[in-house]
Amino acid sequence: MMLTVREALAKGEAFLRSKEVSSPRRSMEDLLAWTLSCSRLDLYMNIDQPIEEKERLALRSSLKELANHVPFAYISRKEVFYGLSLLIT
After folding, report:
1. Distance from first CA to last CA of the chain, Å, rounded?
2. Which residues, 6 or more positions from 2, have their beta carbon under 8 angstroms from its beta carbon?
3. Per residue of the chain (89 residues), what is the pLDDT tens digit?
4. Which pLDDT score is estimated for 2?
5. What distances in angstroms separate CA 70 from CA 14, 43, 51, 64, 81, one per listed residue?
6. Going by C-beta distance under 8 Å and a sequence separation of 6 or more, which residues neighbour residue 87?
7. Most buried residue, 7, 19, 29, 57, by CB count within 10 Å?
8. Residue 22: which residues within 8 A CB-CB, separation 6 or more?
9. Which 3-state string (H, E, C) describes the chain?
10. What Å distances lie between residue 81 and 77, 84, 89, CA to CA?
11. What is the C-alpha to C-alpha distance for residues 78 and 11, in angstroms, rounded to an integer?
12. Tens digit of pLDDT for each residue in 11-32?
């Protein structure tokens, strides 16, 4: 099944909203951008780009964690603090 960036954003946001995750749109943008190794701006510049199967599976797994209220920094294993990129372990 082909899934575009637009569809992933919409479906993921609705899923996160149903799980009462704070800022579901922003959370989904961050998660999708991290999964696709791009910026949030790139998501919108390539909104109709299909997502490859391996990326879709990785996104689904991470989305489940986020829905269980695991902080995004724990999922991505990275946090930016005062311009420093910190590894989260």
Report:
1. 34
2. 50
3. 689 999 999 999 999 999 999 999 999 999 999 999 999 999 999 999 999 999 999 999 999 999 999 999 999 888 888 988 888 88
4. 87
5. 17, 23, 24, 9, 19
6. 77, 78
7. 29
8. none
9. CCEEHHHHHHHHHHHHHHCCCCCHHHHHHHHHHHHHCCCHHHHHHCCCCEECHHHHHHHHHHHHHHHCCCCHHHHHCEEEECCEEEECC
10. 13, 5, 15
11. 25
12. 999 999 999 999 999 999 999 9
Place of tokens 């990785």: 58
Q: Supply 37's token pair.
A: 């190794």
- Name the residue among 44, 23, 22 with its Cα closest to residue 33: 44
| pTM recorded for the entire structure | 0.87
Q: What backbone torsions phi and psi does residue 50 show, to the nearest 5 degrees?
A: -70, 150
User: For residues 48 and 5, is the Cβ–Cβ distance under 8 A?
Assistant: yes
**The pLDDT value given to residue 56:** 95
